[in-house]
Amino acid sequence: METKLNLFKWKQYESAIILLTVRWYLKYSLSYRDIVEIMSERGLEISHTTIMRWVHEFGPEIDKRIRPYLKPTNDSYRTDETYIKVKGQWKYLYRAVDSMGNTIDFMLSENRDMPAVKRFFTKALTSPHNQFPRVITLDKNPAYPPAIQELINEKVLPKETLVRQTKYLNNIVEQDHRFIKKITKPMLGFRSFHTAEQTLKGIEAMHVGYLLSFLILAPQTILF
């Protein structure tokens, strides 16, 4: 893994400035051009394409670096997917929170089907802050039960895992989708699946522990 020094090597601007613009974009309902204007008022002329490159580079880096430090989630999964527009088409952002509303994991998918469900749960179970689920609460998406059963048969999930398809119990994750919509709405969709993935990793990282992420990467940033 790159050190902090190497991560910002050869950058034109200091790490505090880079990460401040990244934080604003990923945390608040701002466009790249909004941030250009804000930085210009502070005497810094930065192009919107430069800020975009920083978001694509450091969003995934923040997500990767904060995972070992996240607080453990509990064993009650609330799982659902929301829609994200990529190149004018709707894609599917799988998300899960625990019964206390803490983010378990997320995954952007081209498809809404059994293989996508299996990939999502496999990803969630590799994160060090997550427990194996005692219960998984779902909506009525028919792809979930057979995918979960296959994961149980493959011993990826415990055989005792209880599956509940109860919409009202899943309100907590549906409400949690709102922060994604709030941030992505000004973006007016993504130009590619890859840039959508990179940006969403940063947005989710801001949601679960944005101050922690900047203490890890550049402690002075939050004081800027």
TrEMBL record:
SUPFAM superfamilies cross-referenced by the UniProt entry: Ribonuclease H-like
Record key words, sorted: DNA recombination, DNA-binding, Transposition
Membrane-spanning parts: none
Family annotation (InterPro entries): DDE_dom (IPR032874), Integrase_cat-core (IPR001584), IS_Transposase (IPR052183), RNaseH-like_sf (IPR012337), RNaseH_sf (IPR036397), Transpos_IS6 (IPR047930)
Domain Integrase catalytic positions: 68-224
Protein purpose: Involved in the transposition of the insertion sequence.
Protein name as it appears in the record: IS6 family transposase
